[in-house]
Structures
1.
Amino acid sequence: MQPLLCLRCRREIESGDKSVAVYMFAQTVGVKPRQKSTAQRICFCPQCAVSLAMGMPPEGALNMAAWEMIRDLVSAEPSLNQAAWESLRGVIALLGAGNEDSSAANWRVASRRVG
Ligand SMILES: [Zn+2]
């Protein structure tokens, strides 16, 4: 099976990972016999889905249709935002693994000062 990649950032999406899938197929109308194409599956990771939904509308009718569908999902409830936030936290924790302790300590000092 071919690995699924996020269309925007090319991050690999493994089965069971949180993601947004856009399915697309074409069908003839008013033509006999009626034909239906195979379906394509396009995937976005949560961060790209949220980022796209929050961003400017894209160019092109197909992109616009996909953008509106993703906006529908992202604006309906916060679970995708939560997933995007969690993976962003994961990346920052990896990048800041060396000085995680000192920044946490600073935060504690700062919050004690406030409280
Ligand atoms: Zn992505």
Note: The two ends are 55 Å apart (CA to CA).
2.
Amino acid sequence: MNTKLQAIQKISSFLKGTNQTLLLTGTHQKMKHPLVLELVLSKYPAPATILFRTNNLKILGETLGLDRDPKIGKPISVQRGFTLFPDTIKRTTWQSSPRSIDIAIVYPIDSLKFDAGGECIQDLMHRGVKKIFLVSWTDNVDFSWTEYFNPVHVIYDAEEEDSEYHERMMEHVSVRSGPDLPSLPAYAASTPIEYLVQIWCRGKCLNTRWAKLNLPYPGEVAIRKAELGKFRAKCLKCGYEAVDNSNWSR
Ligand SMILES: [Zn+2]
């Protein structure tokens, strides 16, 4: 199960590790970005500059409990040692943002595709960003463009805290098929597309990896709901065999 606890653990180790980008998806629509913010403020060494990039500044105001909506380019002191700047996923707002940032939180990423998403991440990199969080709202669109940036993938579902809500959201998650797959890394390119799935490799890799399934990929809902043991996936990088299908996607 993709619980809050495992999300906290994975995000915390990402903050300490060397990976630059983290993709956070899952059915807990409105609880993912507050969790990221909370963990950044409690685990990342201060002083640090945070950029919150959104499509709606109200979201940030509500998350921080502000009386007024935040303004683009106006710093908000969120906690001793941390300064947070808001901007939006619209390029025209980026010129007001600080030239140097430590952490970027992009939420929601639902409307971004390969071009706009790539442009957004390149801009963050030009600002010297150390950690990028790409956070989804509703997982009914294709986030495979993020694969290009080799993110650590963490899933935070509502299942444990509110199973009815989780089930409702799972029904919205569309079944994705082959043609939308991103350009695959070389180590996965020779495997037939219908047998490919992404896993969190607990073998040598300790990273998100493409793996080969024992059965053709049935879609995200079906694979995440399948009974344990029905699907097995072998990491194409190190050969580790995974059975924790509730985490898999593509
Ligand atoms: Zn592996």
Note: The helical segments are 4-16, 32-43, 57-64, 114-126, 163-172, 220-225.
